[in-house]
Amino acid sequence: MNLGTETLWYLELSGNFLTGFEQSIDILPWNNLRDLKLSGNKLGGALPIPPRSIISYMVSDNRLTGEIPQAICNLPSLVFLQLSSNNLSSKLPQCLGNISHSASVLDLRNNSFSGDIPDAFSSDCTLREIDFSQNQLEGKIPRSLANCTQLEILNIGENKINDVFPSWLGIFPKLRVLILRSNRLHGVIGKPRATFEFQRLQIVDLSGNCFRGLCGKPLSRKCGNGEDSLPAAKRDEGSAAYPLEFGWKVVVIGYASGLVIGVILGCVMDTRKYEWLVKNYFARWQR
């Protein structure tokens, strides 16, 4: 099938058994392509570079390997970048912050990326969803992320992030989902310093970390000088390999008058229902 290199602007071949292109190409030939959806195939090899006209680039659930090319950072119109569930590896390029001034969705979930998350989010960041979960990322949560004030979903769960609880995320007026599960986060989760912090949160998962000092209702420990202790946490046999001080999952439900925080043991919540809820919430931006 011959497709015009100048006329084609939308191409979707998702959910097939495609293994590659007829000719090995590093740069896709369609100069005016805006939407490319190749998810759910068997594409292998390096990540193809779309044209500068691309707006939506979705190649999740394939077998792509190697690193993210620097050229991906120089796509001026890119809004949706979805590379999840491939075999991509190496460190995230520092230039990845370049697309944060135009992109809305950055999904790198379930690959083998390592090293630190680049501290390079632009001052005019437009990102609404960031999903770096299920990789081997380490270091601290980059403070330049504070520039992404439109952020609604942040998922960096199941990595090796070693940091304290990012209370500074509380200033985000639209943040609804915060997933930090199964990392190496530690320290005390303090009481919000202002009533407007984390106003819109609906889902929070802090399980599988090394936090201490949770307090406030419905827990028995009071915030401040209260000496009441937390109930003993039961560790799951299938939990992360590093020691945990607790195994709580925190679900935050927003109300007009404030936040009601419900804390339940991880073993009580049906994991399948929880994952379904998060997956379907994320799917809203992927349609």
TrEMBL record:
Matching InterPro entries, A to Z?
Leu-rich_rpt, LRR_dom_sf, RLP23-like
Q: Which Pfam families match?
A: LRR_1, LRR_8
Which organism encodes this protein?
Salix viminalis
Q: Which UniProt keywords apply?
A: Glycoprotein, Leucine-rich repeat, Membrane, Receptor, Repeat, Signal, Transmembrane, Transmembrane helix
Q: What is this protein called?
A: Leucine-rich repeat-containing N-terminal plant-type domain-containing protein
Where in the cell does this protein reside? Membrane
User: Record's superkingdom?
Assistant: Eukaryota
State any GO CC term.
Answer: membrane
Q: How does it sit in the membrane?
A: Single-pass type I membrane protein
Tell me where the transmembrane regions lie. Answer: 246-269
